[in-house]
Amino acid sequence: MDRRWWLVALMICAPPTAGMEARANGMPDSRTETAIGLMTGFADRTGLTSPRPQQRYLWTDAFAVCNLLGLARATGDERYQELALRLVERVHQVLGRHRSDDLRTGWISGLDERAGEEHPTRGGLRIGKPLPERGPDDTFDERLEWDRDGQYFHYLTKWMQALDLVARATHQPRFNLWARELAATAHAAFTYAPPGGRSRMYWKMSIDLSRPLVPSMGQHDPLDGFVTCVQLQVTARNLSRSPEGPGLGDEVADFRSMMKGRDWATADPLGLGGLLMDASRVEQLMRRGAFGEDDLLEELLGAALVGLEHYARQGELDRPATMRLAFRELGLAIGLQAVERMRKAAEERQVSPEVRSRLEDLMRHASLREKIEGFWLDAEHQRAPTWTEHRDINEVMLATSLVPEGCLELPPID
Which helix (H) or strand (E) holds 205? Predict the structure, then answer.
């Protein structure tokens, strides 16, 4: 076995907490080194640290910001935090404005230059897809729609989370304010109340948020909105006694009403990972007094267990690389590490027997993380078109899986 394969074996066999222990002891950490290499390559390719054209994509950039913050904490190197701040600025300048091939110019919020700089998220943020959005008179093409621009609610919540973590890392309330302004804008645009029914949500909106592009509702969008808004409220209160901007009380109540009676179970690996990450945020916010009982946490863990058991039986991880999408599987790998952190926290505080039992049941599938990481760390599998065609998102999410602290932990505000 050559040295490269020895390092791969070391990385996939080590438990998620091994890297933290190694760093605490001043030992070399191969998982962190690999994550640094992945993030360095991403920063260069997408114009963050090079004169190359800006290639901004909201989902990938949100995970990248969290990764850079995590690397700053893991290594003590402030340059990674500086890169995270630079990435935030670039995303706002690119995705907060109209496309270069659009007849419209300036901030998509319609604000003038000065106001747009002060409130860059008030109009939402574009996805960053390669094709322009579908026009009002264009025929809907489901396949083509995946490559068309617009706004996704579940991408916006990822960016809210990234901004909030920047606020926690820097103790600068403006990043949390921008996140709350984005939350208020997104709620107003994506939610609607059909006659005689409770609120629902659109899945995809136009760039200017004036019309829905895909009217169906994302399975976890109300949950993402609810958990994210509660997190933003907690951070705002901790950073300032009288935070300016939206309080998000109405938004939290509306998302909560949409959550009643919904089934969160899914066998999609990316959806499963997101569900487990939301559960982890709920658990951490409970420790900060944001939620009283374990009911929501029990519900999310139970749904994740149903979906995970179904996914494990399907055998998708035995398929060749050409039939798999790395970033979707890596979402699950990240979520499984959230389970490990929740289980560790459950050993240190009182939780319900149901929560403890479900965490133990989920941990029976922990080896899937090693299987996913090991497969996509293989250079041969990284030559597959399914990897190379989505290289940026694949590499950033692989880096998240290798060093997940930046994405999964809500650092306390001193």
Answer: strand 204-205
- Residue 108's domain comprises 96-262
DSSP string, 370-403: HHHHHHHHSTTGGGSHHHHTTHHHHHHHHHHHHS
In a domain, 226, yes or no: yes
Domain for residue 100, yes or no? yes
Two tokens at 168? 């926690």
| Structural domain total, the chain | 1
Q: What does the buried/exposed string (b/e) look like for 263-275 if buried means 16 or more CB atoms within 10 Å of the residue's CB?
A: ebbbbebbbbbbb
pLDDT tens digits along 278-304: 999 999 999 988 987 789 999 999 999
Return the structure tokens found at 96.
Answer: 């907060």
d(CA 329, CA 272) in angstroms, rounded, equals: 9
The gap from C-alpha 105 to its chain's centroid, in whole angstroms, comes to: 28
Q: Is the pLDDT of residue 22 over 70?
A: no
Q: Identify which of 186, 150, 180 has the alpha carbon closest to the alpha carbon of residue 163.
A: 180
**pTM recorded for the entire structure:** 0.92
Q: Is residue 81 part of a domain?
A: no
Place of tokens 């990972």: 273
Percent of the chain having pLDDT more than 70?
93
* Cβ contacts of 44-53, under 8 Å, gap ≥ 24: 45/391, 45/392, 46/392, 47/90, 48/83, 48/86, 48/87, 48/90, 49/83
HEC assignment per residue over 327-376: HHHHHHHHHHHHHHHHHHHHCCCCCCHHHHHHHHHHHCCCHHHHHHHHHH
